[in-house]
Amino acid sequence: MVKNRIEHIDKVIPDAYHGTVFHNAQKIISNNKFVPSDDLDTHLGTGVYFYETAIDLAVWWAKKKSKGSGRYGVLQATVQLGRCLDLIAQENRDKIKFWRSVLVERFKDKKIKLRWVINSYAEEFGADTVRCIYVPPDPQVVEEGSGIYEKVRLVICVRNAENILRISLAESGII
Question: What DSSP element (H or E) covers 155?
Fold first, then answer.
């Protein structure tokens, strides 16, 4: 039986990076507040998304989002994981698989998306953050047979804004 409890993690991530268009970066800094994402790209559910330790990925994302505006900004935040649904741990991936089966049984006619499963689980059991390793659909290996992939991302979704302890502008530029 899977214990559906979310553990508190006393880990502070000092280098969590969030990429966006420049005017949004300015607004976030001046208001000291992020607007949580809740669109179809949010595989870890509703929240504010960060790349852990990878400013290069945040710059890539910011440039992708800023194509129309021409300017991008990357914010560096300090994030307290707190009650973290850490999907790096197999135990927690098992919890999500089990929870998905519960939802599939309960809502037989609905197509169950992972983001909905994670949102439901996080709300039911109280998660401040969700953290996982994301491997892109067509990963390239660094060396054949090594199991080390390029463009792998360590992603944090902050659901509770109180867990974002500090924000600063890390980089900005023109595309």
Answer: strand 153-158
How does the average pLDDT of the chain come out, rounded?
93
Q: Which residues pair with 169 in a beta bridge?
A: 75
Distance (Å, whole) CA 90 – CA 172: 37
Predicted TM-score of the model (pTM): 0.93
Q: In angstroms, rounded to a whole number, what is the distance separating the alpha carbons of residues 116 and 146?
A: 34
Query: Are the beta carbons of 43 and 131 closer than 8 angstroms?
Result: no
Which ranges of 32-113 does DSSP label H, i.e. alpha helix? 55-65, 90-106
Give pLDDT tens digits for 84-134: 999 999 999 999 999 999 999 999 878 899 999 999 999 999 999 999 999
Handedness of CA 120, 123, 126, 131 (dihedral sign): positive
Residue 139 DSSP symbol: P
- Cα(first)–Cα(last) distance of the chain, in Å? 51
Distance CA(50)–CA(135), nearest Å, equals 15
For residues 59 and 75, give the distance between their C-alpha atoms in angstroms, rounded to a whole number. Answer: 10
